[in-house]
Every structure is written in C-alpha cells, then in structure tokens.
Specification:
It contains 13 helices and 14 strands. With 311 residues, the chain is α/β, with parallel strands linked by helices. The chain binds pseudouridine-5'-monophosphate (PSU) and manganese (II) ion (MN).
C-alpha cells in the first residue's frame, strides 16, 4: 500500500501495518539506525527480528522504518531487514538528513529523530528503542546535543526507551527535556534508566505503574495541544545489565581516544559504543541486544493499552 504525503514524499506502509492502523490496532515504530550502526552483522539481523517478535508478544504490530529507494518505508519484510543488516555503508539519516536522502534515492538508516518523523507521517502513536540520543558529555564546549531531543519537541509520538546511554550527560539530558516540557514517565520503576544499566542514579520525575494511566496521560498530552513526544522509560532486566563502574571507566577511556582521533559530529555515538564494547569484551553488545528486546516488549504492551483506551 502506498500513500503520498505533501505531494513529493512517499510513505509506503506494509500491508500489515496499513491494516492495523486502519482497524485502530496498536503499532510500534522501530528505528533502523540501530541495525546498521549499532550491532554488527549477523547479530544485528537476528536482534532486529527478535525486537519485532517482542513487539508482537507485547500485543502490537512492529513497523521498522527506513529510507529505501527514495521512499520512507514503514514496516519491512524479513528480506528487507537482512538487506539493511548486511549492506555495508548505509548512511545514518537523522532528521536534517532526511530531505536529501529521499531526493537522492538509495538506502538510509533512520535514527530516533527521523523515525519519529516517519511515525508521525504514517499515523503511528508509539515508537520503541533502547537508547535515545541526548546531551553529550562536554556539550558546554562541543554544543553536541542529539537532534533526537529537538525532534521530541516536534513529533506527536510516545517514545518507549531504556533511558539514554551513559556516554551522554544524563543530568543535562533530563534538564533539556524538562525545559521543553517533554513528559518523562518511568513505567514500574523509580529511576531514569541508563540503557544497559538499570539506573542512571537520577530519580525519575514521575513513576506510573498502571498501563491505562500511561495511555490516558499520553492522550492528555496531545489533547492539551502539545505537538511533541511523550517519553516513557523502562529499565533493562537486572540480570542482563552491565556493571556501572566498568562501563564508566570504558567511557572515560573512549572519550579520550575520540578526542585523540578527532572523532566528532554524527560519528561520535557509534565510535563510543564500539569502544565501550571492545573494553567490556562484548558484554555491552549482549546487554544492548537484551535491552532492545525488553524495551520493544514493553513498547508493544503500552501501545496495546493505548489502542484499547482509544477503542
Ligand atoms: N542508542 C544506542 N545505539 C545507537 C543509537 C542510540 O544504543 O546506535 C543511535 C540512535 O539511532 C540514535 C542516534 O537516534 O544514535 C543518536 O545519534 P546522535 O547522537 O548523533 O544524534
Ligand atoms: Mn551529535
């Protein structure tokens, strides 16, 4: 099924996603940058499938989003996922890169920010990913703030995540979200999580345990006229988490190496993640896979509660 939006941008929904949306069933959008720039092949392909299965277990239809052949694809086949996972050099496409990526044609991997644009255009209310971008450590001199945060102020999508990676400055990330009135609700947990660590050490501004209350709150946010995201956090299972101190040390070392190698801009996230993975002998990658799957399951469960609320 094909839909044209704003006359020049084509948003192509898979039949399953189009049917689910038409019938008011729950759909959860999923990013593709984590496939191409997060994990390595073949772990990335296997994880992308397990993430889709987890959304289904939660009670929703998964919709992985990507740029393919100059159109925004919403909902991908197993063959599409395999192609994205195994093709080297697919560009990372964040919000500002999207117009040129679509004009050029070819493949593009969508970040959280550009995935929210795709979800909003397709009419999908929920998105799940393990770790959002945020304010980087040292942002007071580098000015590096992920456009994920800016997009949260523009897209009407509920974002389910395990907080943000510890490679970021999580305190400043929370301040940014507060300044821009992006609600942050922690589902069945007290702290703002830190991706593959259960807690960032920062208490969440708000804990909610009832999925119906989450669903109502999301709708209230939009009913109040906000054209912005609603953040819901869910932490990694303690058994899958990595040790805080070990990750912190690895990050400090990776940041020194990044400065030495002159890495900055949109390449820094992947560089730091890979360095932390090497320093933890692959433990952070395994935790990364676990947290992607658990977040997707909770995303499916909350999207289903939201669809029931609207029914
Ligand atoms: N979180 C991860 N791994 C990732 C990313 C986030 O655990 O690869 C990606 C997401 O696609 C996110 C992007 O949207 O990094 C943010 O990049 P930047 O900081 O350049 O905006
Ligand atoms: Mn950046």
């Amino acid at each position: 099924m094909t839909r044209k939006v704003h006359s020049t941008v084509e948003v192509r929904l898979s039949e399953e996603v189009a049917d689910a949306l038409a019938e008011g069933r729950a759909v959860v959008a999923l990013e593709s940058n984590v496939i191409t720039h997060g994990l390595r092949y073949p772990d990335n392909a296997a994880t992308a499938h397990r993430v889709e299965d987890a959304v289904r277990e939660g009670g929703a239809v998964p919709a992985t989003v990507a740029v393919d052949d100059g159109v925004i694809r919403v909902g991908m086949t197993a063959a599409d996922i395999e192609r994205f996972a195994s093709t080297p050099g697919i560009p990372k496409v964040s919000a500002r890169d999207l117009p040129v990526a679509l004009a050029r044609g070819g493949m593009g991997a969508l970040t959280v920010a550009s995935s929210l644009i795709a979800a909003d255009l397709a009419g999908i209310a929920f998105f799940a990913s393990a770790g959002i971008g945020g304010v980087h450590r040292g942002a007071e001199t580098s000015m590096d703030i992920s456009s994920d945060l800016i997009q949260f102020t523009r897209s009407r999508v509920a974002v389910v995540c395990a907080g943000a990676k510890k490679i970021l400055d999580l305190g400043l990330t929370m301040e940014y979200l507060e300044t821009h009135s992006v609600p942050v609700v922690s589902y069945r947990s007290a702290d703002f999580p830190a991706f593959y660590c259960v807690s960032s050490g920062i208490p969440s501004p708000c804990r909610v345990d009832d999925p119906t209350v989450v669903a109502r709150a999301v709708e209230n946010h939009w009913a109040l006229g906000n054209h912005s995201a609603f953040l819901i956090t869910t932490p990694v299972d303690a058994a899958e988490a990595v040790d805080d101190a070990e990750v912190d040390r690895a990050i400090e070392e990776a940041m020194v190496a990044a400065r030495r190698d002159g890495v900055r801009g949109n390449a820094i996230t992947k560089y730091l993640m890979r360095a932390v993975d090497a320093a933890t002998q692959g433990r952070s990658s395994r935790a990364n896979m676990a947290v992607l799957i658990s977040t997707a399951r909770t995303g499916g469960h909350l999207a289903a509660a939201h669809a029931r609320h609207l029914a």
